[in-house]
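Researcher: Next sequence.
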Amino acid sequence: MMEIQPEYITAKNDESLRTLARAISLSQGEFSLIFARCNYTNLRQSLMEKLRERSVKFRERVIEPSAKSLFATIQEELRDEPPLVVIISGLELVHDLDTVLISTNQLREEFRKNFLFPVVLWVTDEVLQKLIRVAPDFESWASAPIEFEMPTNGLIEFLRQNIDALFTGDVITNLETCDEIEAAFQDLQIRGQQLEPEVEAGLELCRGLDDYANNQVEAAIEHYQKSLRYWQQRKDLERQGRLLLNIALCYYSKAEENQRYWEDIRYYLQQCLDVFEQAERPDLVARHISKLGDVLRQLSSWD
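Model: Next structure:
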């Protein structure tokens, strides 16, 4: 498959940005629903800056993860001077997106009555699919999504940087990057781009984190094990330790239902601490050794 040149993607994004600015301009003074499809936060922020440079006046609102209503979020923008356009981002981070979209579909006529200005929704592929499935009547008011993409070299660099962050950063704060990592992988596959084994091993970690967050513990363990096997072959001790710790945490979840899993937790935690010691990372040993102490206490393994 022919490689897509960065210049082509840049030109395509510029044309999409012109389309978005034109759609906003043509809809002034009346309700209009516009979807801007983009899977990557950094790219979206860059596009918003370019939109400002085009002298497009808009009011930006990031919907709260705890939000229960898109209508109420937009309505808050009417307290002061009515906006010329409202651009909403952050839908992909809403905790209960189905509830928000069901409410949106039920209140769709209220949008048309109360919001006499264009509403632009930044959507990822996943959010767009949910809109089509859960809020089909509301979704049908919009024309085809205006699409924005990242160049292939940018996607590869994005994957490398974010996978490194998953291995070295805080798991909880990095969970939101998993959807973007998966999207980047899918985009590269569509373009026929072969990924290095190291990137694919990182993707397995990402999928494991996502499954664990969604209480799919068995699937998470399977993904962690796949990634672990690669880093064992590469003899990367720190990444092995990280994965062993994540596997142990999965068994913590299983132990809540069945006490026999405490031995599995002990096994993986001990392995984790052993490889951190081999990696000469006493700071990581110190950070996690208390977990093993708790497990030994649970097992009454006093020796």
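Model: The first strand starts at residue 32 and ends at 37. The chain has 15 helices and five strands.
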